[in-house]
Amino acid sequence: xQHNNRILFIENVVKVYGSKTxxxxxxxxxxxxxxxxxxxxxxxxxxTLLRLILGQESAxxxxxxxxxxxxxxxxxxxxxxxxxxxxFPHLTVLENIMIGKLLPLPxxxxxxxxxxxxxxLYYLESIQLAEHADKYPHQLSxxxxxxxxxAQALIMKPRILLMDEPFGALxxxxxxxxxxxxxxxxxxxxxxVFFVTHDLEEAVFxxxxxxxxxxxxTDGRGSIQRGARIVADYPLNxxxxxxKETAEFGSFIQKIRYEGFDPKNLQHVTQFNLEHSDSFQTLxxxxxxxx
Length: 291
Ligand SMILES: Nc1ncnc2c1ncn2[C@@H]1O[C@H](COP(=O)(O)OP(=O)(O)OP(=O)(O)O)[C@@H](O)[C@H]1O
Ligand SMILES: [Mg+2]
Known about the structure:
Blueprint: E1 6-17, E2 20-31, E3 35-39, H1 46-54, E4 61-66, E5 69-70, E6 78-81, H2 93-102, H3 107-110, H4 114-126, H5 142-154, E7 160-164, H6 172-189, E8 192-196, H7 200-206, E9 209-214, E10 217-218, E11 229-235, H8 247-261, E12 267-268, E13 273-274, H9 285-288
Parallel strand pairs: 3-8, 3-9, 6-7, 7-8, 10-12, 11-13
Antiparallel strand pairs: 1-2, 1-4, 4-5, 9-11
Bound molecules: adenosine-5'-triphosphate and magnesium ion (MG).
């Protein structure tokens, strides 16, 4: 597998914390513009995978290549939005959106920079909060604060946007509105998105590709503690109707639940449903059970 034309290329990535292997052998190639949703049982390593892509942590072994270069420390090309609002309480909404642009500048240069203000206003409008520019975060609802956090990431024009359960703390109505908004912003800005969620419906609705990460599988290694692997990988853009109520949608979600979340269902590594055309797998003989 080559990393040409892939915005992200991960091969044989293992992440160990202490004596615990969290990610076992991750292989993942992603084409620019893809909206990848990541699901899997709690504690399987979804946030860890995002931190590796962000460059906040390094892999124990394996290769992570972003836009042709090995990943290094976090950079503005990769933005992240967390579940909990990450706003500065003593800054206004507009200042919160501009802050990422201002921080790298020397103090005197950051004064009176009209350009940044205008840019921040543009993002504020795109998240439909223009009239709240001068409010402080505590004066906004949770959904509004989360929209500001998204604008805060977008103004840096990240080519890769990482989102870790960004809508997890929102009520259902706000959550649906945010789903529509994020799809609009993704289309408008042409980003590649990695979106972790616990909500399988949300994952199938939003994504162009779904990655199921799970420690529930088997291989040729006997009874060891296994780290998570990508046990299923499906394209979603060919999914005929993205309407949550259809039977097709419902049965697809059942299948994902069975493949990734059922501790009794231990699929063999050689039988994973890796149907996405970018999907690949490096298995050594020991792991594939061929020895
Ligand atoms: N810095 C760390 N040091 C030690 N162990 C860690 C560290 N970060 C994560 N872990 C462990 O790695 C495993 C995966 O954690 P991670 O947060 O990536 O899971 P997750 O899939 O995001 O879970 P959740 O769905 O609950 O958010 C867990 O067992 C966790 O305890
Ligand atoms: Mg997590």
